[in-house]
Automatic annotation (TrEMBL):
Subcellular localization, as worded in the UniProt entry: Cytoplasm
Keyword ATP-binding attributed: yes
InterPro entries: aa-tRNA-synth_I_CS, aa-tRNA-synth_Ic, Rossmann-like_a/b/a_fold, Trp-tRNA-ligase, Trp-tRNA-ligase_bac-type, Trp-tRNA_synthetase
Gene: trpS
Protein name: Tryptophan--tRNA ligase
Classification of source organism: Bacteria, Bacillati, Actinomycetota, Actinomycetes, Kitasatosporales
Chain residues that bind L-tryptophan: 137
Record-linked SUPFAM superfamilies: Nucleotidylyl transferase
Binding-site residues for ATP, renumbered to this chain: 9-11, 17-18, 149-151, 188, 197-201
Top-level taxon: Bacteria
GO molecular function: tryptophan-tRNA ligase activity
Chain ranges for the short sequence motif 'HIGH' region as given in the UniProt record: 10-18
Motif extent ('KMSKS' region): 197-201
Family affiliation: Belongs to the class-I aminoacyl-tRNA synthetase family.
Organism for this UniProt entry: Streptomyces chengmaiensis
């Protein structure tokens, strides 16, 4: 059976980008067709300046939202990365497989490292090595597929390279995974800056729709979205990125294709209004279910405890095999 792994990192409140690019597809498609594991990858949230209490709070919120969106613990494994030691164990072996040059080339390292330096902060070593930990997240489970938004493609490519290299040097140990993307909205852009990805840690956030925003806030943010010059509603990512973003969001919410939807509108205002209502309708049940689940933290804990046990059981044999293959003496 196909195995799938993917995750969300608790660096901010989850966004419409996280939902359309990843979470929604995990719920609607992936958990039904494969043996799937979905994780709150909290160790990744420590790679930039962080507030410990906030990370803890956001981790719980992300797990609760994953369940609220419809991940079903009877069908898939939902867990928190730091509860399963195999991720960090394997990460070290993969650091011994990766070269520093290939990590310095990662776009996210260059962008986030640049932001940290500009803010006068030091760049954590873990920001450089985080794609190796992500490779460990995936390879520990022998995942065949990694459903992610487009921004994660480069990291999955690195994961593939490390798996192939490890297998060639030390004998076949890892499945070589591939990234999969949703058909539309694989890269949702910031509503105030359609040249940048909608990212959950971006401030101040007027261009970011959060999954827990109330309906009026969602409407306001979408109605104030930056659009492009001209009056004609057409789908042109290069010349009309603001409009293209709205059309992709609408297409992802309602089905259909962004270029075909464009033909149905003769004003930007009408497109914004329909997009806003479509997003409000899409997110309402998630927000309502989140409120119910958040009122029962012990229930969420029970799911996460079981998830971590299952994940550990799946990861340990492969990670132990990697320890032996690379030349480490078994414990005596
Ligand atoms: N804007 C986006 N459009 C489509 N997919 C997106 N994803 C993230 N942003 C968009 C996908 O969501 C999943 C979880 O992402 P992550 O938590 O690993 O972090 P990220 O990719 O770095 O996303 P963010 O929200 O932008 O976080 P920050 O601001 O902290 O960097 C992934 O599958 C991702 O592709």
């Amino acid at each position: 059976m196909t195995r799938i792994f993917s995750g969300l990192k608790p660096t901010g409140h989850l966004t419409l980008g996280n939902y359309l690019g990843a979470l929604r597809r995990w719920v609607e498609v992936d958990q039904h067709r494969a043996e799937a594991l979905f994780s709150v990858v909290d160790l990744h949230a420590l790679t930039v300046e962080h507030d410990p209490a906030r990370v803890r709070r956001l981790s719980r919120q992300a797990a609760t939202l994953m369940l609220a969106a419809g991940l079903d613990p009877q069908r898939c494994t939902v867990f928190v990365q730091s509860h399963v030691d195999e991720h960090t164990r394997l990460s070290y072996l993969l650091e011994c497989t990766a070269a520093d040059g290939e990590l310095r080339r990662m776009i996210q390292y260059r962008e986030k490292g640049g932001q940290a330096r500009a803010a006068g902060q030091s760049v954590r070593l873990s920001l450089l090595t985080y794609p190796v930990l992500m490779a460990a997240d995936i390879l520990a489970y022998g995942a065949d597929e990694v459903p992610v938004g487009e921004d994660q493609t480069q990291h999955v490519e690195l994961t593939r390279d490390l798996a192939v290299r490890f297998n060639q040097r030390y004998g076949h140990t890892f499945t070589v995974p591939r990234a999969t993307h949703p058909p539309v909205a694989a890269r949702v852009m910031d509503l105030q800056d359609p040249a940048s990805k909608m990212g959950k840690s971006h401030e101040p956030g007027a261009g970011i729709v959060h999954l827990l925003d109330d309906a009026d806030t969602v409407r306001k943010k979408i109605m104030r979205a930056v659009t492009d010059s001209g009056r004609e509603v057409e789908y042109d990512r290069e010349h009309k990125p603001g409009l293209a973003n709205l059309l992709e969001i609408l297409a992802a919410c309602e089905g259909g294709k962004p270029d075909e939807l464009a033909g149905a509108y003769d004003s930007y205002g009408a497109l914004k209004k329909d997009t806003a209502e479509a997003v409000v309708d899409l997110l309402r049940p998630v927000r309502e279910r989140h409120a119910e689940l958040a009122a029962d933290p012990a229930g969420v804990d029970a799911v996460l405890r079981l998830g971590a046990e299952r994940a550990r059981g799946l990861a340990r044999p492969r990670v132990d095999a990697a320890f032996r293959a690379i030349g480490l003496m078994p414990a005596v």
